[in-house]
Design a protein that fits this description.
Oligomer: heterodimer
Shape of chain B: globular
Radius of gyration of chain B: 19 Å
Strand order of the largest sheet of chain B: 1-2
Strand content of chain B: under 5%
Number of strands of chain A: 0
């Protein structure tokens, strides 16, 4: 028990240091840009955690897609799948979710809601099938293929909102609003917090149980440390595990898209994602690929993005500053990890190297 | 006929910045690195061009843009080569960094409106003789200098890559870094140089957008060209000539969209915009097994 307390304290301390470092970095960038850091930070605070409204209507609403796509990326990376395609899977899920919600009669109510969320997850998973088959069958780097699928999704949504799903007046490139019954209920009256956030938290608990407490999760993690390790552990069909990781990751990102439509936007339009699928990489890495920690880092980056919006409103600081911070966070995380690995090497390497499961990246010559 | 001229012109115009970036990426990937941060190098080049060309002239803008692109690639080399961190995640972060930082700098330097910001641009150069041929002349031989240079680089890059010792060393590092090391080639240094060169070409690609085409800067104006260039390299099977062909194909399919819209074609233009990506996926599947990609692509160097 004592051991656990020590570990929890250490983790909490590390979290606080990381959060403080990120906020400090942001303040530094604000100051370097010639703005008043105090005004900017106060706007950042008031827009993210400063009031109940900010927490429940801005931060947690913004965090919902980040947690779900962050889980998608974390799960994929844990299983050795470098899925850079969460953005496309998110868009595919959003498109499928809105198509189903609009196709069912308004009287369908909660059935329409469930059907549209399920459609989002299924189509999100389907969006990974091509990269998954290319990887398993043809040893094609999924990095390239998932990026291709992102562009195809982008053009597909652009087509849908100007074609089959366009609102009846055919003026705006967006769909009609989905019926009230197909929308996710608000969980806190008077705020914008919808049931999707609860789903995201449940998903992270489920992902944690799967990864850390089941045989299937063990196989995923072993596959993630490298195909050689997986084969020597025996009894692991690497290709099958890889395929499942692709599908599960895509399903989570697709669900995120459908949740965004049924919980926030209520319609499909082109720029429905401000790059959630890419921010998700920062979310996953900041959370150390641990599903529960990913929920935390998703909320943290959600707060940062929500706060950035109010920073732009109240202190005139461009909100794009946050994406610089997010990129630097990714670099800092992998830099620290690499530095630790180098240090471990130099100290005789008794400590097991904990690094990205990049060994599983296939090269075309592996076939 | 005017439509055909417009189509061919637009094809070359769209293909040019893609070709610069993709030629650079071909060299980088031949050395075993994959630079997903190319998008960041392109947008950094575009911003550098717009920030310096009004003061330093067009040539100065290109030089600074190349340096900016190389600087972005240096971050990749530092992390991926020096620290042996994951190339793909590093590259993704660099793309995000480039897009975010240029957006931020743009607003800081030029204000939120960004109005009245325009740079000098390269005028089209009519090739003597060839430019006078009807149809072909205006379509293929009336372009800014950058277009001719881009296509002239193709045979040059191919010769360098396949016919020189330096090119052989580069390819050796991409295929088998341990063997390259044994043969007296320093894989780390080769990858550093390849990354810097590829980044510089990415910067030139961004500068071409600004200084030969648009004449101004917009946030995110690279619009995924870095990722498209990576697709082009794969579609072109990691050779300069293949890359040029793939870049032209991407150019043609996006030019086709304007043509079809003008002609009132009933098919959705997004279909044509998506074709190159689908083609790339098919090409990846068909080349995958035959190992057209460098064998050590994307892998960290072995312990020296």
């Amino acid at each position: 028990v004592e051991h656990r307390i020590v570990r929890a304290t250490r983790m909490a301390a590390r979290t606080i240091v990381a959060a403080a470092a990120i906020v400090g970095l942001l303040a530094l960038l604000v100051a370097l840009s010639g703005y008043d850091p105090r005004a900017a930070l106060s706007a950042l605070w008031s827009g993210s955690f400063g009031s109940a409204y900010a927490i429940f209507s801005a931060t947690l609403v913004r965090a919902t897609p980040l947690v779900l796509t962050g889980l998608a990326v974390a799960l994929a990376f844990s299983g050795g799948v470098l899925n850079i395609g969460a953005e496309g899977q998110f868009l595919a899920g959003a498109a499928a979710g809105s198509a189903v919600a609009l196709a069912l009669p308004p009287a369908a109510g909660v059935v329409a809601l469930i059907a549209s969320l399920a459609a989002g997850a299924v189509v999100g998973a389907a969006w990974t099938i091509v990269p998954a088959i290319l990887r398993v069958r043809f040893r094609v780097l999924e990095v390239i293929s998932t990026i291709m699928m992102n562009f195809i999704a982008l053009h597909a949504v652009s087509y849908l909102v100007r074609g089959p799903l366009q609102e009846p007046l055919r003026i705006y490139p967006q769909s009609s609003a989905i019926p009230a019954g197909a929308r996710l209920p608000i969980v806190l009256p008077g705020t914008r917090l919808h049931l999707g956030f609860v789903l995201a938290v449940l998903a992270s608990i489920a992902a944690w149980l799967l990864l850390r407490h089941t045989a299937a999760g063990f196989r995923i993690r072993v596959t993630g440390t490298g195909p050689t390790a997986a084969r020597s552990a025996g009894m692991i069909d690497v290709d099958r595990v890889t395929l499942r990781v692709f599908l599960l990751s895509g399903a989570l990102a697709g669900l995120a898209g459908a949740v965004e439509v049924s919980g926030v936007t209520y319609a499909l339009y082109e720029n429905i994602s401000p790059g959630y699928g890419y921010t998700a990489i920062a979310v996953a890495l900041l959370g150390g690929l641990h599903p529960i920690a990913v929920a935390g880092s998703g909320i943290f980056l959600g707060a940062l993005e929500a706060g950035a919006a109010s920073m732009q409103r109240d202190a005139a600081v461009p909100s794009v500053l946050v994406s610089v911070v997010e990129a630097l966070v990714i670099l800092a995380v992998i830099g620290l990890r690499a530095a630790r690995a180098v240090a471990a090497d130099e100290h005789g390497g008794t400590e097991p190297r904990r690094e990205m499961p990049s060994g599983a990246t296939p090269s075309p010559s592996d076939a | 006929v005017t439509l055909l001229v417009a189509f061919l012109q637009a094809t070359l115009r769209t293909a040019t910045p893609l070709l610069y970036a993709a030629l650079g990426e071909t060299l980088v990937e031949r050395a075993g690195l994959i630079n997903i941060g190319l998008e960041g190098a392109i947008i950094a080049g575009a911003f550098a061009a717009v920030a310096t060309a009004p003061h330093a002239g067009i040539a100065g803008g290109f030089v600074v843009a190349a340096l900016a692109g190389a600087a972005m690639a240096a971050v990749l080399a530092l992390f991926a080569v020096r620290f042996r961190a994951d190339q793909i995640i590093t590259g993704t972060a660099i793309s995000l960094l480039g897009l975010g930082a240029t957006g931020l700098l743009y607003r800081l330097v030029f204000g939120t409106t960004g109005a009245a910001l325009s740079t000098p641009t390269l005028a089209p150069v009519v090739v003597p003789g060839l430019g006078q041929i009807p149809v072909v002349g205006p379509a293929l031989f009336t372009h800014p200098l950058t277009t001719y240079v881009a296509f002239a680089l193709v045979p040059l890059a191919s010769w360098w890559l396949f016919r020189t010792h330096a090119g052989l060393a580069l390819r050796a590092v991409g295929e088998n870094p341990a063997a390259a090391l044994a043969a007296g080639v320093a894989p780390g240094r080769v990858q550093w140089l390849a990354a810097l060169g590829g980044g510089a070409l990415g910067g030139v690609s961004g500068a071409t957008l600004v200084l030969a085409q648009v004449g101004t800067f917009a946030e995110g104006m690279s619009a995924g060209r870095g990722f498209i260039a990576i697709a082009i390299v794969a579609l072109g099977r990691w050779t300069p000539y293949g890359t040029a062909g793939a870049a032209l194909l991407f150019g043609a399919s996006s030019a086709l969209q304007f043509l079809l819209q003008a002609a009132g074609w009933p098919l959705p233009y997004q279909l044509f915009l998506a074709i190159p990506y689908v083609l790339t996926l098919i090409a990846l599947a068909s080349t995958g097994r035959r190992a057209a990609a460098p064998a050590a692509l994307g892998k960290p160097l072995p312990n020296a």
